[in-house]
Design goal:
about 250 residues; about 30% helix; Rossmann fold; alpha/beta; 8 helices
Length: about 250
């Protein structure tokens, strides 16, 4: 009997960064399972209270901030190694990033926003990829609209489509549903799960993530205090969940 393929490291990170009144000091790995074929298995939740350092950590992983000390490896490629002075810029990390509020280009249409990271493609390929992304996030009817004519949920769907369009190796989401009403959230979660891209999803809202089949990193005061299956890691926080659902 042949052995089943073992898990491989998707992302490895060791980061130490100190601010005057706060520090981020983490060392973790996110693994990918070559046997798994469902996109939902590629989700990791970065969970923690406000001011735990979640957004800071995402910005460092995306290359938008450089820690005093750190090493980041994605799919075997070193993106950051402060000891060796390796710092790959954000645009070359092959990582998509969606902040809490959609930062769309106001003077561009939805299609033009999605096309922003596709300038390397031939026109026909670019158009095809835009159409694929519009279909993925159910935004075909929004194609020619400018951002000022979009609702909050529509804007966030377009921001996700823009981040996914270049086919990144990983997508970082910084509480992308926090500003949306409850009715808009399931649709965006559904779009994300259909994408098949590995996702590191920041949240401090248990009701938003409780049913997701995902691994969880628990971040408290700038440190990873637990790592494992979501409902197992977050079981001690169930009372908070029940309060949120009332």
């Amino acid at each position: 009997m042949s052995e089943a393929p073992s898990q491989s490291n998707l992302l490895e990170a060791s980061i130490n960064h100190r601010y005057p009144h706060f520090s981020v000091d983490v060392d973790f790995r996110i693994t990918s399972d070559p046997v798994a074929s469902q996109p939902k298995t590629s989700w990791t939740i970065l969970f923690g209270p406000s001011a735990a350092g979640k957004s800071t950590l995402l910005r460092i992983l995306a290359g938008l901030a450089t820690p005093q000390q750190g090493r980041i490896i994605l799919n075997g490629q070193t993106l950051l190694d402060t000891t060796s002075r390796i710092v790959i810029p954000p645009g070359r990390r092959d990582i998509g990033f969606v902040p809490q509020r959609a930062a769309l280009f106001p003077h561009r249409t939805v299609a033009e926003n999605i096309a922003f990271g596709l300038r390397h493609l031939a026109p026909a390929e670019r158009t095809q990829r835009i159409d694929e992304m519009l279909t993925l996030v159910d935004a075909q009817s929004l194609r020619d609209r400018k951002p000022d004519r979009l609702s909050g949920g529509e804007s966030q769907r377009v921001a996700i489509a823009r981040a996914l369009a270049p086919r990144p190796r990983m997508l970082l989401l910084d509480e992308p549903l926090a500003a949306l009403d409850a009715a808009a959230k399931p649709q965006i979660i559904h779009c994300l799960r259909r994408s098949g891209i590995p996702i590191l999803y920041v949240s401090h809202d248990l009701s938003e993530i409780w049913q997701l089949p995902a691994q969880t990193l628990l971040l408290e005061a700038g440190r990873i205090t637990a790592n494992g299956p979501l409902q197992q890691v977050l079981a001690p926080h169930r009372e908070t969940l029940l309060t949120q659902l009332q």
